[in-house]
Amino acid sequence: MIHLSLETMLQLCIILPLLATVGIIAAGKSPNLREGVTISTSLLLLYFVFNLYLGLQRGEVITVQWGQLLPGLQVSFTIEPLGMIFALIASFLWLITSVYAIGYMRGHHEKNQTRFYVCFAIAISSVMGIAFAGNLFTLFIFYEVLTLSTYPLVTHAGTEKAKKGGRIYLGILLSTSIAFFLLAIVSTWFVAGTLDFKHGGVFDSTVNKTVAGVILALFIFGIGKAAIMPFHRWLPAAMVAPTPVSALLHAVAVVKAGVFTVLKVCIFIFGLDLLQTLPSTQFLLYLAGASVLIASLVAMRQDNLKARLAYSTISQLGYVTIGALLATSSGVLGSSLHIAMHAFGKITLFFCAGAILVAAHKSQISEMRGLGRQMPVTMAAFFIAALCIIGVPPTGGAWSKWFLLMGTMETQQWILMSILMVSSLLNIAYLLPIPFRAFFPGGTAPAEPVKIKEAPLPSLIALCVTAVGCVILFIYPQPLYELASSILETPVIAHEK
Amino acid sequence: MLTHLPILQVIVPLMAAALCLILRHPRLVWMFTLSMSGLTFLISAALLQQVVTSGTIIYELGGWEAPWGIEYRIDLLNAYLLLIISAMSTVVLIAAQTSIENEIPKDRHVLFYILYLLSLTGMLGIVATGDVFNVFVFLEISSLSAYALIAMGKDRRALWAAYQYLIMGTIGATFILIAVGLIYQMTGTLNMADLAERLPEVAHTRTVFAAFAFLIVGICLKLALFPLHLWLPNAYAYAPSIVTVFLAATATKVAVYLLIRFTFSVFDLSFSFTTLPLQTLFVILGLIGIFAASITAIYQRNVKHLFAYSSVAQIGYMIVGYSIGTATGLMATLLHVFNHALMKGALFLALGAVMYRVGSVQLNQFHGLGRQMPITMAAIVIGGLSLIGVPLTVGFVSKWYLILAALENGWWPVAVLILLGSLLAIVYVWRIVEVAYFREAEAGSIPVKEAPMAFLLPIWLLVAANIYFGVDTQLTVSVAGAASQSLFGGSP
Hints:
The complex is a heterodimer of chains A (497) and B (492). With 497 residues, chain A is mainly alpha-helical. Chain A has a domain at 283-488. Chain A contains 20 helices and two strands. Chain A has a two-stranded antiparallel ribbon with strand order 1-2. In chain A, strand 1 (63-70) and strand 2 form a beta hairpin. In chain A, helix 13 runs antiparallel to helix 19. The longest helix of chain A has 33 residues, at 160-192. Chain A is globular, with a radius of gyration of 22 Å. The relative contact order of chain A is 0.10. Chain B has 492 residues and is an all-alpha fold. Chain B has a domain at 290-492. Chain B is 79% helix and 2% strand. Chain B has helices at residues 5-23, 26-54, 76-103, 109-128, 132-151, 157-187, 192-202, 206-223, 231-238, 241-266, 269-275, 278-298, 303-324, 327-358, 369-372, 374-388, 394-408, 412-438, 453-471, 474-489, and strands at residues 57-60, 71-74. In chain B, strands 1-2 form a two-stranded antiparallel ribbon. Classes of the chains: A mainly alpha (497), B mainly alpha (492).
């Protein structure tokens, strides 16, 4: 293989999926070739991201400049541990989702599959752009591209319901980003004179606390992808999309892009020290806490499986935001771990939901009683993933929730601590009954033996891989833990305080 | 030759208009018009180049020294505007022949090009001249030909729309003439540079106040500033498609230029903004205009009407930027003048293509167009995104500077309102997108083909410009920045 410099690889991470769209369109007539392009691109992408990871481990500084859009505003990319975590998860899960999508899209006889794979690739490219963005401005550009490229995916079915869902999706994400996020960015630019991500933040110590507090609130509300209430409605609306989209984008890429941005802003724009002293931080913490609790309660009342999972996602995103706003090292650690853990757990759950839809044509939870006999593997995976979301060993979710709880204790946020505990109980209440009833329907069991009928093999493999991933992340979390704990240590661009 | 560029800029289209009568054959006339417009574009590019390298160009008409003779004065602001007008005119003309085939009877084609060239002459003249009476003359040339152009529309309501515009436009022009007369009476000169020197001595008199008031109202009528915009939507909606594109991309921009020139160079800023309450007035009117026009746009069934109201809203943004009264604010306005010409040029031209194929631009005729005319509709989507102000499009650049200017001046609420206003753009743009992409073409309707190349080429030229100047902002930002700096820094 040709030797590529790390800088080239970084750029290829963004460009490669875009190039792949050309191949996907060209191979549109032959589905096997088209999916071949997707799979090989995602393999290559994972290879690049992994090489970048190794480079980061060696302590190399990797930055790329793409020139300046407006005077003083560069489009630049850089590698730092937090972005690395996000990129690793997204590129790995893209591969898995591509495998899953082959089984799902064909098994479900979806139309316009070429458009589907094209938009998917563009979305992944923008996710890479977000993960590696060297400043807030670059991040914002890719953030908007991500919104727009996922719109055709959400409205894929082309029905009246899809149109409505798409309207809410685009309406909320675009409005919040333009009305609040952009305003926050311009204000930051105006107050601090830079948008670069810096350790310890870009604001100097003389900054007006009220102004900075308002800007923080604008950020938290403006990053609609983090789905903090009251701007969460887009996520349930997005569930009209095909399941692979819900799985990768609305459990991993898009929502994680949101909380990732929140973390980035908290750590590298405000800096933890400043964050602790802002007047609005406490208010926003409680808002995130309310979001966690209310979303969990709403999830309990959903009978549609994907809707329940969507509200569960909203709730779990609140955890990450809380961790970021706590502004302590364990909070940040917990948040960044939770991005990974929740990604594996939730994508498995969505994969299962899709598998149930394809194999058993069921989407309502009340219909899934006794389904464990027909789909034992799927339901077992569902059980493991549910444990991961709840946060009990032996799944990865235990680690992230542990550190998040630590964070609330260190800062003596007793109310938040109890919210997190109660919400975990609620998680149990709305997730675990599903696999339990599937395996132990109770009452009179049907007399005739049920034939096992699982989802198409690619889909089944995919959901097993992610379920096993949940367990592996519990047993072997060291690489992730080291990466997450180095977020606050390594200087991003230069050590300036 | 090079020293005569300022006057050639105006003379070339004027002479060309006369020559069209000799050529007579429509296709030939079209090609001739296109090449002449292209020539004005080259001249304006050369002028801009000259101004950037060696500063303001002063040209004395017929060798008569000002203030006796008429003086043409090209500084950065003029050169920038000249470039926008001539460039847009040329791009639009590429599609002209194809478009008017369906909309204007064949025997009037030559007339159409003559009027088009005259209108172009007028606009270029307004911008190039340094003499206030000359401004009035060119204003009438461009307006009269514009009325006639609008009246050529296929729809009979075009006559009514042209008549409305005629009345309002004439009132505006008369007001400007009254103002010019009053100023002349007080100062004894019509030369802008002279006026700038002599006006301060008489600035406190009631006559000058009255002149200023007449002038501003007159310009605002031409500008279609809310609430003086009532002529605009119908004029845009019922005019032939090409005329709509041309006017939307250039006419209001010229009025913005006049406003800036008069309030910054002829009268000075402290007179306009401090002695008289123009700043407060314009911020309020601009903001109301943004919201009122955007909300009205949402409820339109005719897509041309929809974008016409959107134009009124965009003028609101320009006025808000202008009235912030700082170099950054003015720069944002100048950027938006350029950027809005690109957006609306692309959008209205795409509507022209729809008109050509479908024969109507009612929203309910857009059913299924996403599949039938994918390239045209993609252009509308990108143009719409630019209108909303999505990053990597020109709309984002102007929005960025507009908000920055508002924040620099400490106008937080204005910044918030500007952003909220742009949310309304999402709504009206997405109404079109949803109809075009989610509704199937009605059963039994005849499927339409993609627009012809004559449309696609200029449309995508403009769409590409929307993206190019959204990514590489060097030219626009530096010229607009320098132009606004010089307006604040020194003499005109």
